[in-house]
């Protein structure tokens, strides 16, 4: 069984080998002591971190994982809003550049902020290539985007000047509806416990807590 999986989507940003740990047994954690690179592991918050700390892992974030049934989705109506697959890619990229300032890689003291920015920028480009981004529009002007993969909501970004104007609930609820219309009966997402605004937003839409996980990182060998 694979216990240490390479993550090439992160390696391309950080220029070092990157891995996801799929099993937190001591045998697997001991292997990370012999491999150079950056590691991510997700664990149950109720489990002791003693072994993780022993092998050089450090706490990075707690992720809240809410889910929403189709019948539970609350749709907020607002004049002039729409959701579309038609958008200017450069405009979406500009929004992405300012939307993800507090992700776990931005908080990782081993990762320079410009490389954390690059990770999210490349992720958005990947979703564009996969045609899994909706543009969020107000009066036909793109003010944000919504990225997804199958039944999971991945990324949500809104231009600074359109935040705190009561638009997020209406725009996001209609994007969720479009995703449901692809054939899903349940949507799920993952939100940092520190991101109170997003937690409140998705709770207002009808999402409810399903699970939580703690995320730990580790850097072995040369830095980024």
Automatic annotation (TrEMBL):
Q: Which Pfam families match?
A: Acetyltransf_10
Q: Which CDD domains match?
A: NAT_SF (cd04301)
N-acetyltransferase domain span: 79-224
Q: Which domain of life is it from?
A: Bacteria
Task: Identify the PROSITE patterns for this entry.
Answer: GNAT
What is the recorded name of this protein? N-acetyltransferase domain-containing protein
Q: Tell me which species this is from.
A: Virgibacillus siamensis
